[in-house]
Amino acid sequence: MDSIVDEFSDFLVYPEHVDIKKNETKEYYIGKAEYILNTLNKDNYFEFLKVFLKKYKTLDIEKQKEIETIMNIKPTEKIIVKEIIKFVNNKKSKPKLNIDDY
Description:
This protein has about 100 residues and is mainly α. It contains four helices and no strands. It has helices at about 1-10, 25-40, 40-50, 60-70.
C-alpha cells in the first residue's frame, strides 16, 4: 500500500488547508493521512504524532496491539526484588535475678 501511495503521491493535489469529512471510506482517511505525512518534516511529525497519541488509550485493545506491532513496541518485564532482613536474637538466656550479697 505504501509503494502505491508513494508512486501516485505526485498526482494527488490537495489544498493547503486540509478539510476532513465525516463518514468517508477508510481509503479516504488513509489518503488524507498520507498527504499530511508527506508535508511534515521530522520535528513537525513528532509534534503531530504526540497530539494524535492523546486518544490512544480510548482505542480497542486489538487496535492498540496493532499499533504496538507496527511501531515494534515490545512488552517489558519488570523484575522486583524484595529483600527482607530479620534480626533474631538467638541467645536464650535465663532471666537474671537481682540478688544482693550481704
